[in-house]
Amino acid sequence: MWSRAPGPSRRLPRRPEVTTDNPSRTPESTAFRTAIDVVRGVEPRIADAIGAEIEDQRASLKLIASENYASPAVLLAMGNWFSDKYAEGTIGRRFYAGCRNVDTVEAIAAEHARELFGAQHAYVQPHSGIDANLVAFWAVLAQRVELPALERAGVRQVNDLSEEDWERLRKALGDQRMLGMSLDAGGHLTHGFRPNISGKMFHQRSYGTDPETGLLDYDAVRAAAREFRPLILIAGYSAYPRRVNFRIMREIADEVGATLMVDMAHFAGLVAGKVLTGDFDPVPHAQIVTTTTHKSLRGPRGGMVLCDDSLADQVDRGCPMVLGGPLPHVMAAKAVALAEARQPAFQDYAQRVVDNAQSLADGLTRRGARLVTGGTDNHLVLLDVSGYGLTGRQAEGALLDAGIVTNRNAIPRDPNGAWYTSGIRLGTPALTTRGLTADGFDEVAELIDTVLSRTTPGTAKSGKPSKATYVLAEGVAKEVADRSADLLAKHPLYPQVDLG
Ligand SMILES: *Cc1c(COP(=O)(O)O)cnc(C)c1O
Fold first, then answer.
1. ω before 320 within 30° of 0 (cis)?
2. What Pfam families does the entry give (predicted)?
3. According to the model, what pLDDT value does residue 10 have?
4. Among 101, 136, 343, 380, which is least packed by CB within 10 angstroms?
5. Is the distance from the beta carbon of residue 266 to the nearest atom of ligand 1 less than 6 Å?
């Protein structure tokens, strides 16, 4: 559950746990009920949808590795008049007047981020992980391509360049190289792949994992970097179940003159919670680190950039370079979430996330399932469902029928491609917030194995086995859904919120 002590100081007395003996009388119940009532006065269907959403979330066994449950304090910090304020620019240097309180909020969020992660600089404006990556890309491009061009031309800003020099600079900005993890090894679309704008901005090459072990092959990364000589070496993933050694990645980047950027969107909570330390903590090794704030970090939906002082000025230009006006209400919620993450209870949470992933992996392996890389040492497990004779799409559908929410995901060299896939990605951050323990995750493994062992592919119109449709044996969906409801009932979600 969420830690409740206020602020970052460990010396402050902890507030007493709010009793949930009578949840209808907690401040959280009053706050959310009142908010929904006020909304109901204008558009009752939206009030109903908000109420229905908490019920759906309470009822589902959520194993989506990128999702979590933010605390009531984080959620409530977002619903207020900060939403009304325009605040383009950065702390103390805004293009709009009247930003005193936004400055306060942004400065506190940035301070928490710097202290929590040990970063020289933090930029808390990005609206999402994708936006954080764009800010980081353009900061590196500005520092390494634009500034040298201005210096060569003897001018201070782009507006002072001649038409000819400007055209040359525009071409140079679009002619840079990025080396990142391949999608099927667990990399992310925003790391230079064609369907994303990053792939249109950069020449991209990717590194993969060892075909035998499924593990990141640093020698192969080094060889690719030596040959390709990228401007940016990007590390980070959304579906790789192991730790990455960022000390080695930085050595490789330095050797070829690349800037090391780490996208820790998925595992920021494990860094914040001091589970990933030393060589596995990206912050001391990378020049620039990006993240989301809503995944394992358990904050509001949003993004963030951490960097060393050399890149700070360029990063602070994120708005209006690539971002629209900041969302001050979300920055307020980021500050609250980061304050929570600085509590000792968050370190305990992060450790339990990893222990629970271990238990889930062991539970699946013991029941005969095959895992990519054979296990996990972070918050996620990548299950290869081809052993059950299914595609990822079929497995995802059958599990959902039984109330288990996951997502399909390609596995390395996936024979079924990125749409049908052969994998299911499972993550423990959300259910760990609900309080599930290692034993609970062993039961989750059993439920997953039960569903998948009793699912068979459907038949396509051609008469061949379908990659999309499936048949789940009679009664299994109900049996598993009942057992999952029993498990969830032991770990109520938002126990202090009763909407009456
Ligand atoms: C989730 C994710 C993103 C994108 O985050 P959004 O907030 O959805 O934009 C970027 N990079 C990685 C590695 C991610 O896992």
1. yes
2. SHMT
3. 46
4. 101
5. yes
Count of other CB atoms within 10 angstroms of residue 287: 20
Residue 448 covered by a domain: yes
Structural domain harbouring 460:
346-489
Query: What is the distance in A from the centroid of ligand 1 to the CA of 292?
Result: 6
With a 6 Å cutoff on the Cβ, whether 292 touches ligand 1 is: yes
Nearest to 272 by CA among 200, 196, 348, 328: 348
pLDDT for res 24: 82
In a domain, 57, yes or no: no
Atom number in ligand 1 closest to CA 131: 9
Give residue 226 CA to ligand 1 midpoint distance, Å: 28
Q: Is the CB of 425 under 6 A from ligand 1?
A: no
Residues 325 and 352 in one domain: no
Same domain? For 337 and 359 the reply is: no
Domain final residue, candidates 291, 314, 341? 341
* Residue 164 CA to ligand 1 centre (angstroms): 37
The residue from 341, 376, 403 where one domain ends is 341
Decide whether any atom of ligand 1 lies within 6 Å of the 198 Cβ: no
Q: Is the CB of 239 under 6 A from ligand 1?
A: no
Checking if the pLDDT of 354 tops 50, the result is yes
Structure tokens at 408: 């399909």
Handedness of CA 123, 128, 129, 130 (dihedral sign): negative
Tell me if 266 is assigned to a ligand binding site: no
Tell me if 187 is assigned to a ligand binding site.
yes
Q: Is the CB of 378 under 6 A from ligand 1?
A: no
What amino acid positions are annotated as catalytic residues? Answer: 86, 88, 263, 292, 295, 301
The three-class DSSP label of residue 454 is: coil
Side-chain half-sphere CA neighbours of 398 within 13 A:
33
Statement: residue 34 has pLDDT above 50: yes
Question: Any residues with CB less than 8 A from the CB of 361 and at least 6 apart, and which?
Answer: 241, 371, 375, 376, 381
- Quick: pLDDT tens for 195-252: 999 999 999 999 999 988 999 999 999 999 999 999 999 999 999 999 999 999 999 9
Q: Does residue 429 have a cis peptide bond before it, meaning omega lies within 30 degrees of 0?
A: no
CATH of the domain at 462: 3.90.1150.10
**The pLDDT of residue 99 is above 90:** yes
- Ligand 1 nearest-atom number relative to CA 302: 7
pTM of this prediction? 0.94
Instruction: Tell me: is residue 188 an annotated ligand-binding position.
Output: yes
- In ligand 1, which atom is closest to the CA atom of 187? 13
